[in-house]
Amino acid sequence: MAASIVPFLGGVCLAAEANYDEAAVRQYTLPDILAGPDGTAVTTADGWRDIARPHQFKLLETFVYGRRLPAVPVSVTGKVERADCMLAGDVMAKRIQATIKLGDAPDALTTDVLLYLPKTARPAPVFLHLNFRGNHAEYPDPGIRLSTAWVPDNKATPEVEHVATEASRGTSSRGWPVESLVSRGYGMATAYCGDVFPDRADGRSSSALKSLGRPVEGTLPPDEPGGIATWAWQLSRVLDWLITLPEVDPTRVIVVGHSRLGKTALWAGACDERFAMVVSNDSGCGGAALSRRNFGETVGAITSRFPHWFCPTFATYADRETELPCDQHTLLAMTAPRPLYVASAVDDRWADPRGEFLSCVAAEPAWKLFGLDGLGTREYPAIDTPVGHSIGYHVRTGRHDLLPYDWQQFADFADRLLSK
User: Fold this and answer.
1) Is 207 a catalytic residue?
2) C-alpha dist (Å) from residue 52 to 39, 271, 326, 412
3) Range of the domain at 189
4) What's the confidence (pLDDT) of residue 44?
5) Active-site residue among 259, 291, 344, 390?
6) Going along 165-247, which residue ranges are E strands?
7) Count of CB atoms within 10 A of residue 326's CB?
């Protein structure tokens, strides 16, 4: 057990007494993901769809993320902007931008969507992810609209009093290698998570939850959704719009997320089976990593630092994770039978890479019901050596980050499982 410096949006914080000793990990038994309401395990794909999956999904709603938010109509505010552009490396692309209104309530919020597409005649598969600081920070293209929403300040990036500046353009581009993915035939779409729920403890009051009729202050119902559920809802609403575009293949939109937005991508994939593939990068506690493993970040640590992410009930399982009726392998299983990719980083011990891998192993029975191989191994892989079949996994060299190496593995996996 040792104090640990861990990353978070805006810098680092000191997490006291995190366990990084495998010998100190408690003994645990995981809940059966194939069990229905009466505890009986299903044995067929139909049983999964009709009995086990709805039951297991309800457990995740009740104890971790809060109830799934309802779909609302989306509409474009203003014009859809289309422009040809040259990306770095002389990669020709089409850039599309639009502001979409999320619902028809008078106080409905909007989100700006940015999309780069290859210059081809065929509809393209698209990777969709949410970003942390505004679309303009994702790529140094002066044509990208500058976010007008609240953004987190950071000494390392030039925001001023939570307002985006021109100097912040492209400051997050290392984690979004548009050129290489577009050159491989993929579209790359993004929207800013802060458009619908500012990532701060009091973000509810400025979030889309108000327009959806949810409480934004005072004592909340135990299964009240928080930031992660709201961001997952945002991803589905962006998907609603993306699949109307003739340039996008509606059957091959892949949801991706890093860190807290990796947790979000997994929940979005659970809530919305239109996503053809689900990708989690360094999502850790409350994401891909097993909560029952007292390694790195714990339920107590995450809910005390970020109480606005989950439903209130999740925090009540601090220091008693073994009593949770579900665990994160339940979340991973929600993707079945679609392809799932989970990525870790060897130095990101706070996110428990081994716990993410073991979660993939434990989720595999859901794919087996469909006659599919899941991960296909119980042996923890070597660093920088991807493994898997319908479930892909790698643990790469380095720290908590989203890197071009990760994206290349995601694209390789999609090439293999979503190609037409």
Assistant:
1) no
2) 9, 15, 12, 31
3) 30-418
4) 98
5) 259
6) 187-192
7) 22
Q: Which of 129, 308, 329, 400 is catalytic?
A: 400
In single-letter form, the type of residue at position 137 comes to A
22 CB-near residues (< 8 Å, 6+ apart):
295, 354
Instruction: Please list the helix, strand and coil fractions of the chain in percent, rounded to the nearest 5, in that order.
Output: 30, 25, 45
- Is residue 115 a part of any domain in this protein? yes
Residue with tokens 């327009």: 211
**Residue 175 pLDDT:** 94
The model's pLDDT over 131-186, given as tens digits with 9 standing for 90+, comes to 999 999 999 999 999 999 999 877 666 667 788 889 899 999 999 999 999 999 99
Give the domain CATH number at 60.
3.40.50.1820
Say which DSSP state 51 is in: I
d(CA 143, CA 178): 15
Cα separation, 373 vs 241, whole angstroms: 33
d(CA 373, CA 371) in angstroms, rounded, equals: 7
In a domain, residue 14? The reply is: no
Which tokens sit at 94? 């089409």
- Token representation of residue 353: 């890479």
Domain count, the chain: 1
259 counts as catalytic: yes
- 76 in a structural domain: yes
Instruction: Yes or no: say if 96 and 247 are a contact pair by the CB < 8 Å rule.
Output: yes
Quickly list H helices, 105-210: 178-183
Q: Are 120 and 185 in contact (CB under 8 A)?
A: yes
d(CA 235, CA 242): 10
Q: Does 24 fall in a domain?
A: no
